[in-house]
TrEMBL record:
Residues 42-128 form the Serine aminopeptidase S33 domain. This is Cell surface hydrolase, membrane-bound (Putative). Residues 1-21 form the signal peptide. Keywords: Hydrolase, Signal.
């Protein structure tokens, strides 16, 4: 029991600290955003969301894949990550508001009509799912979410049980109450599934079959919540955020298939 309590304390502290974010502490001025233009002028731009404790640079392999596919690539650092402002992490919910600003900047700074793809992995995938329920400009065409969770609350409760063998109570209510007092919402007030119900953009869900960090069941929950055109790809033998690394060529083929269906629909040959 002593060992369990010792392990639990860092988790409770980390979770509580992460959710003690106040919008007053974030000045909305990101210090670094990587933008990589396509080799030739392109109207296609992908905005890539990174995972927990990562940054835009950790998404370099995905950036390379999309660059090879003729996309301009935008790689922001989320709040409290990399060189962006903010001491705290909101696990996608507040970040979605920042991505709305990045989308608008891409549109405003383009000298031609632009088509935007939203892509994210892990926390970045959940961020894009949460973003999907907002009022997106028509330039946003599609979304690809790789191993995103269904809600912050569900993810916290799952990790408490799996990694620390701890029950939901009293830790989750405590963290949720802190969130309500500091941010204005309880954890169960904000979910990816709730946002996906409002989504109107075609979306591809990708998830590793053997993911033990964000369980594959969450992919099915997200898929079921979506009423827009959707595809689900469960990658055999892949653990968390491993779907690309299992077979990069197959991953790219699956992405291209989705893009050919919805982003750049291919006309059937006569």
């Amino acid at each position: 029991m002593k060992k369990k309590l010792t392990l639990a304390l860092p988790l409770v502290g980390a979770a509580a600290t992460a959710l003690l974010a106040s919008e007053h502490l974030f000045n909305f001025a990101f210090k670094r955003v990587n933008y990589v233009p396509a080799e030739t002028a392109s109207d296609r731009t992908v905005i890539i969301g990174h995972g927990y404790k990562g940054n835009g640079e950790t998404m370099a392999n995905f950036a390379q894949m999309y660059h090879n596919l003729g996309f301009n690539v935008l790689l922001p650092d989320d709040r409290g990550h990399g060189e962006s402002a903010g001491k705290y992490i909101s696990f996608g919910w507040l970040d979605r508001l920042d991505y709305l600003q990045w989308i608008q900047q891409v549109i405003d700074r383009s000298d031609r009509p632009v088509k935007i793809l939203l892509f994210g992995v892990s926390m970045g995938g959940a961020t894009m799912e949460m973003l999907s329920g907002e009022s997106l400009p028509p330039q946003v065409k599609d979304i690809i979410a790789d191993c995103g969770y269904s809600s912050v609350e569900a993810e916290l409760v799952y990790l408490l049980k799996r990694q620390y063998h701890l029950p939901k109570y009293p830790i989750e209510p405590l963290v949720s109450t802190i969130s309500k007092r500091r941010l204005g919402y309880y954890l169960n007030d904000v979910t990816a599934t709730g946002q996906l119900k409002k989504n109107t953009r075609p979306i591809l869900f990708i998830h590793g079959e053997k993911d033990v960090y964000v369980p594959v069941g969450m992919a099915y929950e997200n898929y079921a919540a979506t009423h827009a055109p959707k595809q689900l790809w469960i990658v055999k033998n892949a653990s968390h955020a491993e779907s690309f690394w299992i077979n990069p060529q197959r991953y790219q083929q699956r992405v291209v298939h989705f893009l050919n269906t919805y982003f750049d629909p291919q006309q059937p040959s006569a």
